Every structure is written in structure tokens, then in C-alpha cells.
């Protein structure tokens, strides 16, 4: 009865799509160790290098001494501790919103929020390249889902223009797209939403800590505070911890506390994680120099690749995709880079569209200029070898 398991796995193997993890035997950082091999880490989302920061570790340890490990229950039962409340206040202050609500992960935030806001009589308008958990949240909501071509505002506009028969409209987009490293045209999205009476939800998983003078995200950078109804994000990437959040009006947060099932029916995050994230948010606010350096290094890598005939997008974010199209190629490029001491992941369908398998390179504040130059050289050499075989 269960042989479909084997069959499916061998199918995946044939297509070069089998997913496996490699155990990272070191804290997150510029250097990691995998199977005893020291590698320069170019695949982490720990953009500011906070995952192993002494200040965060101390905050977590102190909180464990004060509060122990688990939070004991859901937040609404006895699982809310001062660390949660402080963190929610800090994030809403940074975001310039009235309130904020924590979730255990960003994924859980998205699958909780979307079904709370829309249902069968409504429509979700989603960028085709949105993150998987936004797709899942929309599916769970049972609303009609209209996916518009990536960043295509003409198409979004025409779908909106025909959406009059739905009760509510919700536009959902990544701010920085996780696999392509380009940015959503948030200003146009907000304008269209205002014109057609739609709610806007922005997922800042890769914008939080990275964009804006105070690191609040792309919404801050584009000056759209107050015009985005739902600002979702994660504490798992630039903040170096774990957890998701939603920032918005007080009434939105009160409503989610009563409707979002992935908030109500799950245990609150450990207070030590919340305490570490408080420290991370404090640091993020003061990290504009790191952000500028990070942008410069990412820009250097992108421009270097462009000069060599690669085609990364013009958007300067720490996510730099090198599209090699074919899954087997992506794997062999990643393996070749690993031999030279670089850790880069091959991202293949179904995570990305057919024919767009890629290396997803992420630059962090911890990389030196020399690291980035070496990676660029290695990529250029690989490409020229590829052209000659
Ligand atoms: C990583 C990611 C999430 C999920 O966040 P977690 O905290 O890791 O669960 C959500 N949205 C986007 C765009 C992401 O890249």
C-alpha cells in the first residue's frame, strides 16, 4: 500500500530534485563546518550576522535563568510573559504601527492571518512568485485566488477592476522576493489598493533588518507606513532568532488574537527567544552602517555578475540568484563551489519555476570584500569552463 513513497522518491531522484540537508556543525556565521570541511557560508538568511551574536546569546541565557525554557501553553492561556509583550511593543514602535502580534514562525503568521482576513466570498490577489506560506495561507482561506504575473501591475490592475463582485479584496506580496532578490513595486500596489478598495498585506521576511534607515523594511524605505494594512515579517532571518510577527492597527491585532488559528491554538514562543529577539530589534534599529555596507557588497556582486554575462536583476538586495536553468547543472555548480570552499545552495523546481534552477547566493554583513571577490571569481571561472565543455 505504501510503495508510492519509494516510487515518488525515485522519480524525484531522476529529476535531480531530491532534497537533503547537510548538517552544519558550527554556529551560523561567515564560516561554518560541514562534514569537517570549513566553508564560507553564502546561503544563510542571517543577513546581519546576529544568529550567533554575544548580546543576543546573553539576553537568551538571562531569560532562561529568569523564566525557564517553555512558555507552558498558548499565549491566551498562561503562555504570555513580559518578554513577549516587550517584543511586540518594540516591533510596533520600529514599524510605526499601533500594535504587533507574535507568531511562532513566519510561516504560521501567514497561514493564520490570510484565512482570518478573507473567506469564501473574497478574493486574494497574489504575485505569482510569492513565498510558499503565502500561497498556503491563501489556499487555507478558501477565498478565490488570482495570481498575477510577477510584479505585473497592469495585470494586477485589470484583475482588481474585475473584482467588484467579491466581498473583500486582499493583495498579498513579498516585499523582497525570497528566491529572486527583487522587490515588489509597493508604491504602485498601495495606489491600486486605494483606488480599488483592497487590503494590502506585505511579507517583509527579507526586508526586515535589511531596508529602511531604522531597518523596519521596504515599507519604511518607500515611505509607505500607514498605507499597508498588514505588515508581516519574521524574526528568523536578519533578526537571527525564530518567530513571526504581524504589525498593524490595534483593531487588526485584537481581531487576529480572536481569529488567527495558528496564534490561538499553539504554544507561545519560548521567552528566551523573545528576549533575544528584543535585543535583535534594538540592534537592527542602530545598524544603518551595516545595512549600507551590505548593500554595497551585494551591489558589487551583482554588477560583477552582470559584467560577465550573468543576468541578475537590477534590484540591490542581499539575495543574488545565479540562474543556470537546469536542476542537474545547479547541483553540479553547487558541488564545484563547495569543493572550492563556498557553501551555496542549488534551488530547483518546485521551489522555483520550471527551467529556472539556480544558485541562490546571499551576502551578509559578515562577509568581507575579499570573500565576495573570491566568490565572484569562482563563479566566472565556472561559467567559462561550462562554455568550453
Ligand atoms: C522565510 C520566509 C517566511 C517564513 O518565515 P519563517 O519565520 O522562517 O517561518 C515567510 N515568507 C517569506 C517571504 C520567507 O522568505
Bound molecules: pyridoxal-5'-phosphate
The description of the largest β-sheet is: 7 strands, mixed
Distance between the termini: 45 Å
Q: Which structural class best describes the helix and strand composition?
A: alpha/beta
Strand tally, please?
A: 13
Helix coverage percent: 40-55%
Beta-strand share of residues: 15-25%
Annotation keywords:
alpha/beta; 14 helices; binds pyridoxal-5'-phosphate; single chain; 3-stranded mixed β-sheet; 389 residues
Structural overview:
- The structure is a single chain.
- With 389 residues, the chain is α/β, with parallel strands linked by helices.
- Helix content is 43%, strand content 16%.
- The protein has 14 helices and 13 strands.
- It has helices at residues 3-14, 54-67, 82-95, 106-117, 132-141, 153-161, 186-196, 218-221, 250-259, 261-264, 271-285, 288-307, 327-339, 369-387; strands spanning 31-34, 37-41, 99-103, 123-127, 144-148, 169-174, 199-203, 230-234, 244-248, 319-325, 342-343, 345-347, 357-362.
- It has a 7-stranded mixed sheet, sandwiched between helices. It has a 3-stranded mixed sheet with strand order 1-2-11.
- The longest helix has 20 residues, at 288-307.
- The structure holds pyridoxal-5'-phosphate (PLP).
- Pyridoxal-5'-phosphate (PLP) is lined by residues 105-107, 110, 131, 133, 174, 178, 203, 205-206, 234, 236, 244.
Amino acid at each position: 500500500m505504501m510503495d508510492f513513497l519509494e516510487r515518488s522518491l525515485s522519480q524525484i531522484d531522476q529529476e535531480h530534485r531530491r532534497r537533503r540537508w547537510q548538517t552544519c556543525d558550527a554556529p551560523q556565521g561567515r564560516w561554518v563546518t560541514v562534514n569537517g570541511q570549513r566553508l564560507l557560508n553564502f546561503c544563510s538568511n542571517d543577513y546581519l550576522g546576529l544568529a550567533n551574536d554575544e548580546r543576543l546569546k546573553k539576553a537568551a541565557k538571562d531569560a532562561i535563568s529568569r523564566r525557564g525554557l517553555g512558555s507552558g501553553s498558548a499565549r491566551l492561556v498562561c503562555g504570555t510573559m513580559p518578554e513577549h509583550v516587550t517584543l511586540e511593543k518594540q516591533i510596533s514602535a520600529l514599524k510605526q504601527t499601533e500594535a504587533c502580534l507574535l507568531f511562532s514562525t513566519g510561516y504560521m503568521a501567514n497561514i493564520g492571518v490570510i484565512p482570518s482576513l478573507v473567506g469564501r466570498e473574497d478574493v486574494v490577489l497574489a504575485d505569482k512568485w510569492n513565498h510558499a506560506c503565502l500561497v498556503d495561507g491563501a489556499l487555507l482561506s478558501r477565498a478565490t485566488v488570482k495570481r498575477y504575473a510577477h510584479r505585473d501591475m497592469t495585470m494586477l490592475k485589470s484583475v482588481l477592476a474585475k473584482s467588484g463582485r467579491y466581498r473583500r479584496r486582499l493583495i498579498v506580496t513579498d516585499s523582497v522576493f525570497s528566491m529572486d532578490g527583487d522587490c515588489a513595486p509597493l508604491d504602485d500596489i498601495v495606489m491600486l489598493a486605494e483606488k480599488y478598495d483592497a487590503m494590502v498585506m506585505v511579507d517583509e521576511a527579507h526586508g526586515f533588518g535589511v531596508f529602511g534607515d531604522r531597518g523596519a523594511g521596504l515599507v519604511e524605505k518607500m515611505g509607505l507606513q500607514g498605507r499597508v494594512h498588514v505588515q508581516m515579517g519574521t524574526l528568523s532571518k536578519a533578526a537571527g532568532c525564530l518567530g513571526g510577527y504581524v504589525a498593524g492597527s490595534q483593531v487588526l491585532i485584537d481581531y487576529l488574537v480572536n481569529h488567527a488559528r495558528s496564534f490561538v491554538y499553539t504554544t507561545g514562543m519560548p521567552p528566551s527567544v523573545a528576549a533575544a529577539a528584543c535585543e535583535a530589534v534594538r540592534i537592527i534599529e542602530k545598524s544603518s552602517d551595516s545595512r549600507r555596507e551590505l548593500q554595497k557588497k551585494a551591489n558589487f556582486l551583482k554588477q560583477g555578475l552582470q559584467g560577465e554575462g550573468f543576468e541578475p536583476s537590477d534590484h540591490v538586495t542581499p539575495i543574488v540568484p545565479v540562474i543556470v536553468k537546469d536542476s542537474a547543472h545547479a547541483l553540479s555548480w553547487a558541488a564545484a563551489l563547495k569543493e572550492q570552499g563556498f557553501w551555496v545552495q542549488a534551488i530547483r523546481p518546485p521551489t522555483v519555476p520550471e527551467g529556472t534552477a539556480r544558485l541562490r547566493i546571499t551576502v551578509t554583513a559578515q562577509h568581507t570584500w575579499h570573500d565576495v571577490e573570491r566568490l565572484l571569481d569562482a563563479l566566472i571561472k565556472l561559467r567559462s569552463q561550462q562554455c568550453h565543455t
